Amino acid sequence: MKKLHKPLMFSLLMLFFLLSAQTGITQPPPPADQGSNSNKAPSGGGAPVDGGLFIALAMVAGFGAWKWVKAEKLR
After folding, report:
1. What does each C-alpha distance from 44 to 28, 37, 47, 53 come to in angstroms?
2. In the chain, how long is the greatest CA-to-CA distance?
3. 3-state SS string for the chain
4. pLDDT tens for the chain, residues 1 to 75
5. Spatial separation of the C-alpha atoms in residues 40 and 56, rounded to whole Å
6. Can you give 5-25 as a three-state secondary structure string?
7. What are phi and psi of 60, to 5 degrees?
8. Cβ neighbours, 10 Å, residue 73
């Protein structure tokens, strides 16, 4: 039971943090443009994604490499 308890608690804690972070990021919908019939580009939406994506991929690759090395040492 102890072997199951630790990974389960870790998974539940990570799930909690992931879900609580998503509710903090949400934004209200943009206000309706009343009476305007022109084609205008929506405001916002110009945030670059590539920097954060690169950092996230590097962290995932590093974690995978760490787990692989750790598994190789146990053999």
Report:
1. 13, 19, 8, 19
2. 70
3. CHHHHHHHHHHHHHHHHHHHHHHHHCCCCCCCCCCCCCCCCCCCCCCCCHHHHHHHHHHHHHHHHHHHHHHHHHC
4. 667 788 888 898 988 887 776 666 666 766 776 656 666 666 666 666 677 888 888 999 999 999 999 999 887
5. 33
6. HHHHHHHHHHHHHHHHHHHHH
7. -65, -40
8. 7
pLDDT of the residue at 24: 60
Q: Which residues fall within 8 angstroms of residue 33, CB to CB, at 6 or more apart?
A: 40
Q: Which long-range contacts (CB under 8 A, 24 or more apart) does 50-57 make?
A: none
d(Cα 7, Cα 9) in Å, to the nearest integer? 6
